[in-house]
């Protein structure tokens, strides 16, 4: 795609501008589940585990990836949207807690997983030069929609009670189907060469850099979510009132949004492998986390929170846009699905581990330091990735990746759609 | 120093001294029950009896400070749920002569004649009023007045604990069940009752209908009314009453009953909008694809001609060829 891609929204611009808007919309749609589910579940039974709903439940992830590889992202995302809406619809008729958990957790959760991975992966296929920025912008959707939907859901709850609110949220979730409809099928050169989902999974599991990358991201994920879960409690330990503490969380969320967009732009502007930027942001996030226990004064805490928000937001788009550099755009769906499934283990372990450390030591110092250590360990593993120390821009051509992966020496036909 | 005799606490002076004091304060009414007709001689054993009866009640003490410059009357709210002995202390500081200050106590608007003491230490004047509150008749507002040039007033308001329900109406659907909760902080009422009202008349709920109303509360300080099989007639106001030894407290809760049609209309509206969006997107896509296919046939033909003429230029034109191919295939 040439530079015209981003400067024009798709009013008559045709195919080029459309993918960006699609992905922005996907971000907004995807945020519906994040904001909605936590709020409603919190309201219904104040379950702290509701924070887990924020992270995409990734066990159906590989299924979604396999299906996307075979059929393209569009049918998978549309089906996911229907599933998600159906789950909410059934939940509005729930008569027991089990019913509620099953409908939202299983049905809607699977639906969300089916939409999240393919849309994020297909971004890397549509964009090659503005990949990071597109990913960054798409990921802002979650944060923005949380801001926008939170008051909306309060309003829904106060006018329609939880049953009516769930019903209407289900209708809103159906917009994921519309977002999915925007994802036009795309055929890239290396698609036939990398084979079907099974072959891709097998080749990925033997791909050294990909495995190292998965390990790095799992470590990063373990430490990543801890402040989200424990920052407010830590502030209350330091005798902060609930209102300024909640305000500080909002500040972190805003700097997170800014960080995502800034890092996305930076990832495209700076030549060279994106792995270096990822390592930079991860190290900075780890350092700011480890410094949290040291800061006592309010100004220091605010500064650290802004720094944490910015750097943690900054590492997300780069983490996703780095994957196609490693495995190529042909295997992106399976790669992302597998990656999500493994790294979510880290995410699920992180918060309980931190809570356990808190119970054992009496304050959050150990939790924050351990989180920082995990992040630094993850960034350390990133150094072992190939081309890390290259100074020129080794924009990996699809041909190179495919030959590297499949060990074939068949000369490939000319480049097809969607490539520079 | 002026000092008026009065019972200050669980003291038990010798009966002889008491008799003397009673003879001195001959016309004063008995303090506990407010019966002005009791004679001083008979008030002695009554008072002793009452002091013995109520000495096991908890004792509370409350303070109000006033100065000559207090502009607004100072009020203090006291929440009582059990009978207790209460000491009300007002202290007054002024730059003038404390001996010229006139002190009075009033309950609501009725002047109180006994049961208070006045004491001056240094530049502060204290007045202490003791009252035993055993039923709702003794609840109310007790005020101390310090009269110098201006009258300064301090008021103690006795109240039973307030109930908290929900400020916003509770929304529920036909056929659903809901729980109305009334609670108060740190209280243990003798009894809880529920009433419903449409308008101004409160009607007690028929709790015998076990499949409709169930009242229970896990703690003493709350009550829960569970209403099952809700219908449209259940809409309205519900009142929970808490009965204390010293009075009653009530709170109003509102129930709004909606039918399923209410959220269904916006639901169907949004679904229709999504279906429309998807249809528009898919149709636009088919339309643009058709448009591309038609001129593409013409372009491809031209492209083939150009390729044949470019072939002779060799490898340098690979880049241009790629770019041209790209613009065609996109």
Fill in the keyword field for this structure.
heterodimer, A: 420 residues, mainly alpha, 18 helices, B: 330 residues, alpha+beta, 5-stranded mixed β-sheet, 4 helices, 35% strand, elongated, disordered N terminus, disordered C terminus
Describe the structure in your own words.
The complex is a heterodimer of chains A (420) and B (330). Chain A has helices spanning 4-7, 18-45, 61-71, 73-91, 97-126, 131-173, 175-181, 191-194, 197-205, 208-224, 226-237, 242-269, 275-291, 298-321, 323-327, 332-361, 365-382, 398-406. By secondary structure, chain A is mainly α. In chain A, helix 3 (61-71) crosses helix 5 and helix 13 (275-291) runs antiparallel to helix 14 (298-321). The longest helix of chain A is centred in the middle third of the chain and has 43 residues, at 131-173. Chain A is globular, with a radius of gyration of 21 Å. Chain A starts with a helix and ends in a 14-residue tail after the last helix. In chain B, 26% of the residues lie in helices and 35% in strands. Chain B has 4 helices and 17 strands. Chain B has helices at residues 15-24, 40-54, 261-310, 318-329, and strands at residues 59-67, 74-79, 84-93, 102-107, 110-112, 116-121, 124-133, 141-147, 151-159, 170-173, 178-183, 191-197, 202-204, 213-216, 222-227, 236-244, 247-258. In chain B, the strands form 4 sheets. Chain B has a 5-stranded mixed sheet with strand order 2-9-8-4-5, with no helix packed on it. In chain B, strands 10-17-16-12-13 form a 5-stranded mixed sheet, with no helix packed on it. In chain B, strands 1-3-7-6 form a 4-stranded mixed sheet, with no helix packed on it. In chain B, helix 3 (261-310) runs antiparallel to helix 4. Chain B is elongated, with a radius of gyration of 41 Å. The A-B interface holds A 14-15, 158-161, 163-164, 167-168, 170-172, 174-175, 177-178, 181-182, 184, 414-417 and B 168, 171-173, 176, 258, 262-264, 266-267, 270-271, 274, 277-278, 281-282, 285, 288, 322, 325-326, 329-330.
